[in-house]
Amino acid sequence: MNIVKLNIKRISDEFGDIALPHYATEGSSGMDVRAAIKDEVVINSGEVKLVPTNLIFEIPEGYEIQVRPRSGLALKHGIGLLNSPGTIDSDYRGEVGIIMYNIGKEKFSIKRGDRIAQLVLTEFSKAEVIEVGNISESQRGEGGFGHTGKA
Q1: What's the rounded Cα separation, in Å, for the pair 91 and 10?
Q2: Rg (CA), the chain
Q3: Half-sphere exposure of 16 (CA within 13 A, CB side)
């Protein structure tokens, strides 16, 4: 396992009591990130809200952070993340906000310090884009959505 240093800055000391992102278990790939809100935030059924984290990340070059939903919120409450997985690029230095939506039938309340998403630090490669006159054939060819007939 590769350990990478990730610098994090709190924007305001007002939320200094809220835990920094951390791994819940030894085998976790995602760090839980928490809501940095003064009071409760309610997401009504069918509604989208941006939930602040009070955090700025200094992500090493060659890495990104993927923002992913928490499965428990999805299963129990119908809460997901738009733009999922979201990407935080290494050159972004603004506050990380979590775009949450409610497809459940009931309103959902988020309280100060609640775990709202997972953050996965991921190394990536960049592509060298080359325009060519021909592309090699493949077994699938141009078969698109549902082409294989398998569930």
Answers
A1: 17
A2: 19
A3: 3
- Summarised one tens digit per residue, pLDDT across range 101-116 is 999 999 999 999 999 9
Listed residue (147, 35, 14, 24) closest to 98, CA to CA: 35
Rounded to the nearest 5°, which phi and psi values hold at 51? Answer: -105, 120
CATH class of 7-123: mainly beta
| DSSP string over the chain | ------EEEES-GGGTTSPPPEESSTT-SSEEEE---SS-EEE-TT-EEEEE--EEEEPPTTEEEEEE--HHHHHHH-EEESSSSEEE-TT--S--EEEEEE-SSS-EEE-TT-EEEEEEEEE---------S-----SSTT--TTTT---
Token readout for 67 is 């923002």
pLDDT 10s digits, 64-119? 999 999 999 999 999 999 999 999 999 999 999 999 999 999 999 999 999 999 99
Encoded amino acid at 68, one letter: R
Residues in the chain: 151
Residues 6+ apart with CB under 8 A from 145: none
